[in-house]
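Job type: complex structure
Entries:
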Amino acid sequence: MFKKKTLPELIEELRSNENIVNWYEMQPQEAKTTPFDDSVDPRIRSALHKRGISELYTHQGTAFRLASNAENIVAVTPTASGKTLCYNLPVLQAIAKDETSRALYLFPTKALAQDQKSELNEIIDEMGIDIKSYTYDGDTSPAIRQIVRKAGHIVITNPDMLHSAILPHHTKWVSLFENLKYIVIDELHTYRGVFGSHVANVIRRLKRICKFYGSKPTFICTSATIANPKELAEQLTGSPMRLIDDNGAPRGRKHFVFYNPPIVNVPLNIRKSATVEVNHLAKEFLKNKIQTIVFARSRVRVEIILSHIQELVKNQIGTKSIRGYRGGYLPKQRREIERGLRDGEILGVVSTNALELGVDIGQLQVCVMTGYPGSIASTWQQAGRAGRRHGEALILMVASSTPIDQYIVQNPEYFFDRNPESARINPENLIILVDHIRCAAYELPFKNTEEFGPVEVSEILEYLQEERVLHRNGDTFYWANQAFPASEISLRSASQENVVIVDQSNVADVRIIGEMDRFSAMTLLHDEAIYLHEGVQFQVEKLDWDHKKAYVREVDVEYYTDANLAVNLKVLEIDKTRSSRNGAVHQGDVAVTMIPTIFKKIKLTTFENIGSGPIHLPEQELHTRATWLELKDTDPEIGTKILEQLLLGIANVIQHIVPVMVMCDRSDVHVTSQIKAAHTGLPTIFIYDHYPGGIGLADDVFKRFDDVKQAAANLIKKCSCKDGCPSCIGNEIEGINGKQKSVQLLSML
Amino acid sequence: MSSLRDKMNRLRGSSSAPPSEETAAAIAAHESQAEPAADGDQLETLSEEWSSMGVKLLHNEGGSFLMRRLVYPAQHKHGIHCIGELPGAVSGLSAFHETPVDAEQLLYLDLETTGLGVGTGNVPFMVGLAYWSGGELIVEQAVIRHPAEERAMLYYLNGKLGSYRYLVSYNGKTFDWPVMQTRFIMNGYNRKLWEPLHLDFLHPSRSIWKNTLASLRLSHVEEERLGIERIDDVPGSLAPQLYFQFLADGNPEPLRGVYQHNEIDMLSLVCLSIRFGHLLNGTVEGGFRLPMPEESEELIRTGLWLEKMGHADRAECMFEAALASNRTAASTLNMLAARDKKAGNWQRAVLLWQKALVQSVQYGTAGMNASVELAMYFEHKLKDYDSALSYVTEALELALSHPLGRRDAKRRDEIEGLRKRKERLLRKTGRKLAE
């Protein structure tokens, strides 16, 4: 008969597994608590008491004390440390004390806002005070909207709604803006890159409007562990912040284990599929009835792993107790899964990073990651899903064959000894800034001396006057245009003039299913491209470039498409240079011209090239920020051809390293190499921001170039292949000692 | 300056296009213009262009703005109505809020704005007002020469509004008044400075002319129903552009057309209120009688509206007139049948549905809807399952033969519902499903 094993038993067994490459143990920590402040309303106290909360963790106590004193705070809170109380307590207290008080909650997604409303309303019900909290988003019905605007004490929304619906209509929200005491920004770390840069400007607009109505709200932010929470919060809100990071929540012992699947193809250095390994590992835990969460990197991957695991354990436990979770599931379905996980009815869940954010699913015992989640911060967020307050927990990261996964598992100190990544934003990106000044001018006239963030804006106002968007009278600039600017600006997209993706599979029901920036569209939405949307294949029937529309139809084919992009770079201006013995690193403005040439059809199962076709699209120019590495006096014996391949290999490695170092999506930063750069004729590698004007990523690479260089050299050295493989510099260079030469080249810088 | 423009153009990936000559010249012209005096400068006079339009400069504590004031005597005829009919007609309007209405309590409002929507950046550059005073109709058109004059205009309006009880408009409940409220709030006024009772004639116009008129725009309604013809009218949609042109070059000439357009809008709005007043009153002194609508759909819709407004007594003759016609569309008959069904007048409802069924065109849904109603009537009221079955069978056939029948989800649900109804009736009549 099958005898169930306990988690400690399974952990012991795992210790002897030969594929384990690193075992890290985190010691348990006792709770650090502090009694409720005397000022807390007795009704709130008794409501919390009913929920089993009779004391506060130290960080909650500090948050309450500072926020009640109108100090802006950012609380760094690992998963499941009771972060919601950090803001709910001061907010509820303020309303209990004075019922005219108002608060605005910002969540990055609608789903999180919904969750928060349910949780908040449970406490409010138990308090027995008439506090109204509402979500305000695209789904809110017109009848409710009126009530929310007039009577909502707590308005829960997202930055997009604030930008396009609330701020441009602020006169309908007088009671909110006149009495706004708190602005809560949850999941602060998600506001980075282009999105964060936009949101920082939306908050500048919000503060402007608050000032107009005479309120001066206090900001309460919460963030996952990142290297620069205080800096990010200050940049995002334009206000000084107090950092709270004395987490007082208790935690049990945690084992953090790196698992590297065995090599199955030595010459190509290909390892056994992480997915297959994850299936088997997860099965072990699930059949012993140990609650497990499996993270996968894509929605498709979630479905694949889910069906495999359900199949593997169907005889031991019901398939119903193992569920998938990802964006695209209906809210009702997701709520049901969350509840199932909390009360233990659901034993296993396979999820995308959708469960990385603060949705409440209770604490599980085991977390299995299929591949490195892409950033240290994100890894800790996912790891935080496992770990009860008492007892042991296990976190398993199963590496895939990609260079970065291999780098992480072979350099565990990189992960455990280093601070997590910094989140970067650049609210002063000219395009983003000008867009939001347009919106701000629509909302309230601008005085020419007025500040909007740290930069002088009178020049921009004059520019907009020339463009006949603003009208100047005396020292004031007024909106004088027929447009509604907020509708033209999307906070989430990488560049202006997005290509809209139109699904015409069903003639009677033609729908817009998404949008994409024009640079990415060149290689992903050209005629005949296969475009994946929520795991469904679509073929582009026609890309109407002039009108920026891509017409797609659902298909079911055996291949994907891969487009070639010819890239040309021109240096416009060099801002900074750091020279070394045989090379230099520069930072400055570049013009990138891109023209897609052909696309290949590649078979899904074998990666064979099964066809190709031309792409006819006009050349596009991108002006952006770049950091570039220049090599002088390279060894003449290497030869041009080989040097070119070496550069390509190094560029490949840097492309993998940089997104991890500067915390951004892979597509935010591009790396390209040139054997003879146009401006110098020297071998050069360019790293540039894939957004007009740049968002600070390439600048960050310049600042931290030594780290990037070190990481690149380490990745190449520690890769277990003999002399180059797709996981590092590529495998096209044979018999020339490519790995060693690449490291040498890097050391010249 | 140009460096910022160049940079923006480079980042946007567009070629560096300098502002067109026209624009540049316009800007230069505007910049050379002397800024208007800040406030209360009595010496400031308006140029000839303005005075030729009858525009005067007004000053108050908020600064200055422009005013064009027109007086229409009672005898003035606008389309088929005479302005002087107003005091007699307004008593009918008391049906809207069940409060008595006096002509001097009405304030008519129509805005010309710089954009669409009710966002905070949409500014009314012309505020048209009209009111009845001392046996005459006064039309006032306030205009701001630049955004900074708004303060003075609002100051004036604020002093005016409080004396009226009703705000008369065309779509003013959702557009003109919210826009004004936004302007007041943005200029520091209390958001509850005036809470009028709305008489927004877009709503009754929609109730009555929804399907008979091609458009419910005021300019169309007035032409079709008030006998008003506009000559060389500047469409309201062009108003923002004309105003921006004026803002850029300071020449008021393009505004002449906007003034006229707004003036006619005001008069038409007054006539529309006269028309609805008459309609609700039945007849008026002086023997004026509204012509009965010609189309039966309009007759029925008018009747239904009168009934809703508490004049059921006069609705019936409209219905009778509509039924006398043989050209009444099936959908119109269904509309009246629905009313009869609600009122419990089953006899006529059944007749109407049967008539609708006979008259329904091949591809419409009216025939199907009528059959469904008849099926329900025979099944539930008369318990005549055989007749009900034949009607539901007919409804199902009509639904399935509809060219778009199987496409959309709502239609699919309807068909599913009909199938279920048919199955039930088959059971009740004891027949087999195989049929």
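Summary: Chain B touches chain A at residues 1, 4-5, 7-8, 10-13, 19, 23, 27, 35, 38, 114-121, 123, 146-148, 181-182, 185-186, 191, 240-241, 244, 247-248, 404, 407-408 (CB under 8 Å). The two ends of chain B are 83 Å apart (CA to CA).
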